[in-house]
Structure formats: structure tokens, C-alpha cells
Write a structure and sequence with these properties.
By secondary structure, this protein is mostly helical. The protein has eight helices and two strands. It has a two-stranded antiparallel ribbon.
């Protein structure tokens, strides 16, 4: 079981077992066991869709939510920013733990770790590029590309209709 804390300060426990997979499949039409198919595309799609991910998480945490009298809307309102990232990570870890073959679990963990390293490297690179931007220089470059003075729409020559008559 893996946990995450939402933005309302509530800690939720994610448990994936056969009953949970059946419940998610029945309520949402999503087969958690097949999220690793097709090069993990279904898993990436789910993680990339925070609304659908929140629905899956709510179904997985439904017993806790009912005990706390938290509706699916209340649950979703408390998932944004870091909380949804941490919830996604807890979900993926729990999904990996579900698989019955130890070798498959080990391979999935390696893949998850590699994916995190790739993501971190991409974010580092993006941050480096953003830090290298000089706003004044870029603005001046764009101004130079558009011409030295703004042109009013009234002085712009358009095609003459009388030329075709």
C-alpha cells in the first residue's frame, strides 16, 4: 500500500488488488492491469490526464472517502500541483507492486526509475534554456523583425477592387 497527501492535508492509501482492478474496470472502464501494454502508452495517457487519474484514485480510495464523507468533487478539488504528482507516483508504485511476477516487478521498477531520470533531465534542460533567455534582447530582436515602426492598418495598401473591373 502506498500513500499520498492531498492539498487539504488528508492522507490517502492506495491499494491495488484484484477487487480494486475489478471496481475500476466496472466503474470507469479502465483496466489497470493493461496500463503497461503497448509500451506503457495507456499508463502515460492516464498519468497525463489529471481528471481521469483523479477518478481512478477516487475509486481506489473510495472506502476511505466514504468513511470521511468526502465526495468525488471534494477529492478532486484537493488534487493539484505537487499533490497530484505525489498521488501519481504512489499510484504507479502500487501498480508495480500488484504484478505477481517478481521479475516483471523488478523490470517495471527499473523502467519507472529510468523514466524519472529522463523527466528530470528534460526539466533541467528546459530550466537551463529559460535561464539563458534575455528578455530585452529577445524583445529587441522581435521588434527588429517586425520593422522599425508600427504600421497602422489605415495606411496598409490592400488589393484594389477597381483594378479587376
Amino acid at each position: 500500500m502506498h500513500t499520498f497527501t492531498d492539498n487539504a492535508g488528508r492522507t490517502w492509501t492506495i491499494t491495488i488488488n484484484v477487487a480494486a482492478i475489478k471496481r475500476v474496470r466496472g466503474l470507469l472502464g479502465i483496466d489497470l492491469y493493461k496500463l503497461v501494454d503497448d509500451g506503457f502508452k495507456p499508463l502515460a495517457d492516464l498519468i497525463g490526464d489529471p481528471v481521469q487519474l483523479a477518478d481512478v484514485l477516487f475509486v481506489l480510495c473510495k472506502d476511505e472517502a466514504d468513511a470521511r464523507q468526502v465526495t468525488d468533487e471534494d477529492f478532486g478539488r484537493a488534487l493539484y500541483g505537487d499533490a497530484i504528482t505525489l498521488a501519481a507516483e504512489a499510484f504507479v508504485e502500487e501498480l508495480v507492486d500488484f504484478f505477481p511476477d517478481a521479475r516483471v516487478r523488478a523490470s517495471l521498477r527499473k523502467l519507472v526509475t529510468a523514466g524519472k531520470r529522463v523527466r528530470d533531465r528534460l526539466v533541467d534542460h528546459a530550466e537551463t534554456l529559460v535561464d539563458q533567455i534575455d528578455p530585452d534582447r529577445e524583445a529587441n530582436r522581435l521588434i527588429a523583425l517586425s520593422g522599425s515602426s508600427p504600421v497602422s492598418s489605415a495606411s496598409t495598401q490592400g488589393p484594389s477592387l477597381s483594378a479587376n473591373s
